[in-house]
Design a protein that fits this description.
Elements (H helix, E strand, L loop, with lengths): L5 H13 L21 E5 L2 E4 L4 E4 L14 H13 L8 H13 L5 E5 L2 H16 L3 E5 L25 E4 L4 H11 L3 E6 L15 H14 L2 E5 L22 E4 L10 E5 L4 H6 L10 H16 L2 H22 L4 E4 L6 E4 L6 H12 L2 E2 L14 H21 L15
Parallel strand pairs: 3-13, 5-6, 5-7, 7-8, 8-9
Antiparallel strand pairs: 1-2, 2-3, 4-10, 9-10, 11-12
Helix pairs in contact: 2-8, 3-8, 5-6, 9-11, 10-11
Length: about 425
C-alpha cells in the first residue's frame, strides 16, 4: 500500500475486523492500484479529499451520482427544506406526484413513473413489470452488460443459484444477427429485451449504440409483444435530457433511472409507457425508504436544472477538449490511448496492455498529480468542472505519460487482474 496515508491505513485495519473483506461492492478499491485511497472525508464541486487531506479532481463522480457538483447549494437546500418539514412518513408527500409529473413531462416515452432507491431496484422492477405484462419469463440481455447486483443480474455470482439466473438468453451488443438469434431462441416466452444505452462494460472498449440495432430491438418487441427496456441508470441525463436511446430515435416501453437524478441523494426510478401501466399497477414492489420526500425534492431541483441550464452542452464541450488533449499528449509520448464511449462518460485504455499494467501505472501517476481517474471503468464529467480543470488534467496527463515512458520497461504484471488473461 505504498503511498497511502496513515489515516486510510488505520481505517482499513479497523474495517478488516468488522466489515467482510474490509470493504465490498463497487466502491471497494481491491481491484484498483495499491495507492488508491479507500476512505474520503469531504467533497465540493468537482473535487474530493481523502481522510489524509489529499485533494483530487474526481472523474468518477461517485461512480455517477455527481452531475452538478458535490454539495450543490440549490439541490442541497431543497433537500434540507423538505427534510425539516417531512421525509419518511406513513404516506408519501406531494413531492412524489410532482416528481412523477416532471419525469413524464421530460422523457418522451414516459406516461408514468415509480420510485425506489437503487439502480438494481429499478431494473428488478422493470423485469417484474415486463413479466407481469406479458405473462412470460424469458429476458434477452447483452453479454457483459451491467444491470445491477441482485442475484438475477450480479456479475459476481457467488451465492447465486442456477434458478436465480434462469430464463435468460444473451446476445452480443450491436449485433443484429445475435439479437435475432436470442429472440428466436426465446420463442413465445419472450418477456423483454434489456438494452444498455451504450456498451459500457468494464475492462473493454465502450461502443455507442448502432441505430439499426436499436431499431431492430424495437421491431422485435413489437412483433412478439415483449417489452423493450432501456437501462439508463448509468447514462441517464449524461447523453441526453430524454432517454439515452432518443439519440438514435428509438422509444422503449420501460426505462430505468438512478445515480444522478437527484445529484447524489438516494433515489431511482422506473418510467413506463401506457402499454405497461396495468402491469405496473398490479405488481407488489416497495421499500421502507422508497417514498422519502427529501430525495424527491432534491430530484425536482436537479431536473429543473437539467431543463433550464446548458449543463449537458458544457460537459460535452469539456469532454471533447479532454479527449483531444489526451490524444495529443499520449501520441507525443509514444503511447496509443484508446478513448471510447460518449465524451461525457470516457473510458481510457492502452493498446498492448493485456494485463493493464500500463493503465494501472498511468492511473497511479495521475492520482499522485491530484487527478482521480479509473484504469478500467468508464468515468464521468460533471457540470462543476471548468476549462481550468481540463487544463489541470491535461498537464497532469503529460507528466504521467512521461513517468510511464520512463518506467515502462520495468513494469511487472498486475496480479490482482490476472483473471483478464486467464
Amino acid at each position: 500500500m505504498a503511498g497511502l496515508g496513515s489515516n486510510d491505513k488505520a481505517l482499513r485495519a479497523r474495517a478488516e475486523a468488522v466489515i467482510p473483506g474490509g470493504m465490498y461492492g463497487h466502491q471497494s478499491v481491491a481491484l484498483l492500484p495499491d495507492d488508491y485511497p479507500q476512505y474520503f472525508a469531504r467533497a465540493e464541486g468537482a473535487r474530493m479529499w481523502d481522510v489524509d487531506g489529499r485533494g483530487y479532481l474526481d472523474f468518477m463522480c461517485a461512480y455517477g451520482p455527481n452531475l452538478f457538483g458535490y454539495g450543490h447549494p440549490e439541490i442541497n437546500a431543497a433537500f434540507v427544506r423538505q427534510m425539516e418539514t417531512a421525509d419518511a412518513l406513513t404516506g408519501p408527500t406531494a413531492r412524489m406526484v410532482e416528481l412523477a409529473e416532471a419525469f413524464v413531462g421530460m422523457v418522451s416515452h414516459a406516461d408514468w413513473a415509480m420510485f425506489c432507491k437503487n439502480g438494481t431496484d429499478a431494473t428488478s422492477m422493470a423485469m417484474v413489470v415486463a413479466r407481469a405484462h406479458t405473462r412470460r419469463k424469458t429476458i434477452v440481455l447483452a453479454k457483459g452488460a451491467y444491470h445491477g447486483s441482485a442475484p438475477w443480474c450480479t456479475p459476481r455470482p457467488a451465492g447465486v443459484t442456477a434458478e436465480d439466473r434462469a430464463h435468460q438468453i444473451f446476445c452480443s451488443y450491436n449485433d443484429i444477427a445475435s439479437l435475432e438469434e436470442a429472440v428466436a431462441k426465446a420463442g413465445d416466452d419472450l418477456a423483454a429485451i434489456f438494452a444498455a444505452p451504450f456498451k459500457h462494460d468494464a475492462f473493454i472498449d465502450q461502443s455507442l449504440p448502432d441505430a439499426a440495432y436499436a431499431r431492430r430491438a424495437r421491431e422485435l418487441c413489437d412483433q412478439t409483444g415483449a417489452l423493450l427496456v432501456v437501462d439508463d441508470v448509468r447514462a441517464g441525463l449524461r447523453v441526453a435530457r430524454d432517454c439515452s436511446w432518443s439519440t438514435v430515435g428509438v422509444k422503449p416501453d420501460l426505462s430505468t433511472w438512478g445515480k444522478c437524478i437527484a445529484n447524489g441523494h438516494p433515489i431511482s426510478a422506473l418510467l413506463g409507457s401506457e402499454i405497461a401501466r396495468g402491469a405496473a399497477s398490479h405488481v407488489f414492489v416497495t421499500g421502507s425508504y422508497w417514498f422519502q420526500a427529501a430525495p424527491m425534492a432534491a430530484a425536482l431541483t436537479t431536473l429543473r436544472l437539467v431543463r433550464e441550464t446548458d449543463y449537458l452542452e458544457r460537459i460535452e464541450r469539456l469532454g471533447a477538449r479532454l479527449r483531444t488533449g489526451l490524444h495529443e499528449r499520449a501520441s507525443a509520448a509514444g503511447f496509443s490511448l484508446r478513448q471510447t464511449g460518449p465524451v461525457t462518460m470516457p473510458l481510457f485504455l492502452f493498446d498492448d496492455d493485456p494485463d493493464m499494467r500500463k493503465g494501472f501505472a498511468w492511473s497511479s501517476a495521475m492520482l499522485q498529480r491530484g487527478i482521480y481517474v479509473h484504469p478500467w471503468h468508464n468515468m464521468f464529467l460533471c457540470a462543476a468542472m471548468t476549462d481550468g480543470d481540463i487544463d489541470e488534467t491535461l498537464n497532469a496527463a503529460e507528466g504521467a505519460f512521461k513517468h510511464l515512458k520512463g518506467v515502462a520497461g520495468g513494469l511487472g504484471p498486475v496480479e490482482k487482474l490476472a483473471f483478464l488473461t486467464a
